[in-house]
Design brief:
It contains two helices and no strands. By secondary structure, it is mainly alpha-helical. It has one domain. The longest helix is centred in the C-terminal third of the chain and has 37 residues. It is rod-shaped, with a radius of gyration of 16 Å.
């Protein structure tokens, strides 16, 4: 079974992919404010995804250790 945190990281990864696609499509036609806003948005989403991946992997490691003992 997949830990909840890894599921959340996959959710944030899909959101990040959508944000990057929107940024790529609109990059050439939008102004500087939009680009900065979306860059900050993708950085926050990427950071959240990284935190959830780290927590999910730690949780998975702890659950495997507890099953061995």
């Amino acid at each position: 079974m997949m830990p909840k945190m890894l599921f959340y990281s996959l959710l944030f990864m899909s959101i990040l992919i959508v944000e990057l696609v929107v940024l790529a499509v609109h990059y050439s036609v939008e102004n500087y404010t939009f680009k900065v806003f979306f860059l900050l948005l993708t950085l926050i989403t990427g950071f959240a995804m990284g935190v959830f991946i780290a927590e999910g992997l730690l949780q998975r490691r702890r659950s495997k250790r507890s099953q061995l003992h």
